[in-house]
Amino acid sequence: MKSLIIFSVTVACFFNAQNLILAQDKKAEEKPKPVAIAHIRISGSLEEGAAPAEPLFSSLKETLKSKLDRIKKASTDANVKGLILEIDGIDVGWGKLDELTEALNNFKKSGKKIYTYLESGEMKDYLIALSSNKIMLPESGWLMLTGLRAEVTFYKEMLEKIGAQADFLKVGDFKSAIEPYTRTTMSESSRKQMESMLDDFYEKSIVARIQMEREAKKWAPEDIRKIIDNGPYTAKKAKELGLVDLVGYFPAVTEAFKKELKVDDITLLKNYGKDKIDDIDLSNPFALLKLFAAPKISSNSKPKIAVIYASGTINTGKSEQSLLGSESCGSTSMIQAIKQAENDKNVKAIVLRVDSPGGSALASDLIWAELMRCKKPIIASMSDVAASGGYYICMAASKIYAEPGTITGSIGVFGGKINMGGTYAKLGITSEVITRGANANLFSSTNSFSKSEREAMTKLIDDCYDQFLTKALTGREKAGSKLDRKTLEGLAGGRVWTGRQAKENGLIDELGTMQDAIKMAAKLGGLAVDTDPELLLLPKGKSFLDSLLEPKTQLSLKSGLDISGISSLFNEVKGLDTFLRMRNEPLWLMLPYNLKVK
């Protein structure tokens, strides 16, 4: 009997324990999981083009597309309930600014909130942050809402100091690309077009945008202009005015999100969507072989849209990066990419993505000619800049998209050289030349143009300009535009326009993002328009080994320098860097390369 009692008690204790465990499991199941919030950091320059072939190097430098893809992924991820943006010193043009803004606005259409933490609060940082539901600044931070300026660097006096002289000819009153070498100040026509662009950016990209996104303040345009005139502001003052919503440090953003979502816990998905890389033990020589391994290439027979990137100064030969870090768009590399897309039976259409101020007239024409030979539909998408030669290659497209803030146009031609004779004399270098032919010294680096040489160059430039106008008009007619020659000539002459102005004048067809261009290409290529098509990005990013073996590879000095003032110096001399790269080209289709609007 005693044993039976002990057994009964033991069984009862067992079932009580089981019930307790089940109750605890049920309680654990009932406990809500932390809400997932995506975190994406935006800073620095976001370049166009395909990422490097190896994840190790692609992760070090994100492209604009990879950043946009991460934002889009967060919007469609059912586990993600919101987005925290951390913005610190973004260095992009107005076209990319528009593209990022559109991506964030599309994210909000998913019904999810965006909170933004501004660390430095520069103008473009703030303009991107305006797309968010709440903006936070650290207590010691500031908001650099100070207005807008356009800056052009001039080299004439520097050339004179070393005994050199620029000798250029141009067609078009507004073709100001030669002014940095021949003047110390802007010409009247150059100032006129700069002021027109600045007015457009200031009123529409800044004043109108602040008014729209901060509509609760019911500010009139004159109120916003006054606020800008009184800037910059401390974080406290910016909040007091209603320019930002919160003052605090980064951890406070997650706390604010908890209140917004009415939850007790949040899981912050740091660097959401960013490619993860395997750690490479640099002390292990066998591990280093990963750097030299051929990249994995995925291939399938699905219909695709090829996106061909034309980034940087356009020149003949292969694309490369210069010693000063500037990128070039080589005609040889571009033609190879176009042929690859044309010969790939799975590619149904092409998007030409242009971020270029132009360059060599010959290289631009070679790229244009290859695009014209292509039988597949071509849609052009303009990024920050698609001017002069950058506009030229877009003329082969059946439709041109640009961002409101894109800098485009600059239909004009110039040519010339820099006479280094005085420089050589200062160095004690002399030369003796024997010629046959009146214009044999045309491209001599020690003499300016003679009268007959100047006449010959003028004929070349005039003929090239006539080709530019004729092809531009043909391209506009192909796109269905009613632009006539006389009207086009009034818009040309080297004049630069914003995307908004170009749309009003008929130089482009639509204001829209690269995604809009891809959708149109998919439609023309017979692909389903309700789904995102698979993309083939060209030219392919170089592998680590390719970069080492490239005969003309030049390591960028800028990339490893963080010393105050050095980076600024590199930016100032980029214009000369471009000139040196194209010094053997007789005719140029070029925007003032070192033009900055910020």
Question: How would you sum up this structure in a few lines?
Answer:
With about 600 residues, the chain is of the alpha/beta class.
Structural class: alpha/beta
CATH architecture annotation of the domain at 35-146 and 231-269: Alpha-Beta Complex
The helix content is 40-55%
CATH class of the domain at 35-146 and 231-269: Alpha Beta
Major sheet: 8 strands, mixed
**CATH fold naming of the domain at 35-146 and 231-269:** 2-enoyl-CoA Hydratase, Chain A, domain 1
Strand content: 15-25%
CATH homologous superfamily of the domain at 35-146 and 231-269? 2-enoyl-CoA Hydratase, Chain A, domain 1
**Which stretches are low in confidence, meaning pLDDT under 50 for 5 or more residues running?**
551-570
Gyration radius (Cα, Å) is: 29 Å
Count of individual helical segments: 23
Query: How would you describe the shape?
Result: globular
Mean pLDDT across all residues, rounded? 85
Spatial separation of the terminal alpha carbons? 94 Å
- Tell me the number of strands: 24
